[in-house]
Amino acid sequence: MSSLLVISRHPPAAPAAREALDLALAAAAFGVPVGMLFLDAGVLQLLKGQEAALIKQKSLTANLQALSMFDVEDLFVCQHSLSERGLTPNQLLLPAKPVEGSEIASLLEHYDQVVTL
Amino acid sequence: MLHILRHTPQDTSRFASSLRVMGPKQGLLLIEDGVYALLPRTTALSALQLLPASVRLYALETDVIARGLAMDDVPKRVTLVDYPTFVQLCTQYDKVLSW
Amino acid sequence: MKFAIALLAGPQDPAARSALNFAQAVLDGGHQINRLFFYRDAVHLASNLAVYPQDESDVANDWRDFITANKLDAVVCIAAALRRGVLNEAEAYRWERPGANSGKPWELSGLGQWVDAMQTADRAVTFGT
């Protein structure tokens, strides 16, 4: 059964952001086909050049980069959420595919289960 | 697919996001603070009313009453449900997405 | 139908009560719950140290009664629990902490248990997102 994780709320400094990524890695470790969609404030997790250590936070970058090692390669980012924040796809540290509202609707239909974190 | 929204539409972008990706024939169930989308004369309620008629709208009745929303203000197209019906909806739609 | 139910919000959030009402309705409707999974702040429900004034409802206690009465599999994410100071005897001993505040019916285990529950359920429903 394939699962789509929608990472929607937590900017990278929130500990919950890491707990969301942990679920993706756990699912991948169990061989579950998993996709990830970064939406709303969740897109901020993908911003390049984060120095989380300066505020005593563990960097998410390593976890994000581990995704490809676990074969989590279906990464999507909401174009609307990027635009709202004045961001463009080339500012992201992962090659996530920008998707619009109707494409997101079909993504949600495509996966067997969808979990928002 | 059944979308479940539990956050106040006025405070978070989840309400707007859920509407943006809502497909035809899907359902939206308002629970907890999500029922504040039913407050009259709000942009949230107008946005709900603008959804295609094929999108079914539901709200958890206890959460509506608990928060002091007037039942008379609940639009006709919104079906008020209890927990057993909430469970039934989850079985009727092929999957559930909590916002 | 088999339901996997996850709760992400803590005892102070209305979601803790919604999820319990939903779980009860699932069983009353003749369906099964293959696992309950408690993640993020929901792990606080597994602490047996919270004290509520008499006129407030103790949602953690209600969960405990529900899980015990229906012999359900209630898994608490171990990493999230340790981080928030929710420890059973084994973990308190392992990490040399002065006491344990969790135990039966809760089981501390990994996120894989949630993944596994979603794989074997007909419906996965998350509360407290």
Automatic annotation (TrEMBL), chain A:
Family: Belongs to the DsrF/TusC family.
Pfam families found in the cross-reference section: DsrE
Coiled coil: none
UniProt xrefs under PANTHER family: PROTEIN TUSC
The protein's name in its UniProt record: Uncharacterized protein
Automatic annotation (TrEMBL), chain B:
SUPFAM superfamilies: DsrEFH-like
Name recorded for this polypeptide: Sulfurtransferase complex subunit TusB
Gene Ontology biological process terms, A to Z: tRNA wobble position uridine thiolation
Classification via Pfam families: DsrH
InterPro entries reported for this sequence: DsrEFH-like, Sulphur_relay_TusB/DsrH
GO cellular component, one term: sulfurtransferase complex
NCBIfam families cross-referenced by the UniProt entry: sulf_tusB_dsrH (TIGR03011)
Automatic annotation (TrEMBL), chain C:
The keyword Protein biosynthesis is annotated on this UniProt entry: no
Subcellular location: Cytoplasm
One BP term from GO: tRNA wobble position uridine thiolation
UniProt keyword Magnesium present: no
Main localization category: cytoplasm
GO cellular component terms, A-Z: sulfurtransferase complex
GO molecular function: sulfur carrier activity; sulfurtransferase activity
Residue ranges the record marks as coiled coil: none
Keywords for this protein: Cytoplasm, Transferase
Family: Belongs to the DsrE/TusD family.
UniProt-recorded name of the protein: Uncharacterized protein
Organism: marine sediment metagenome
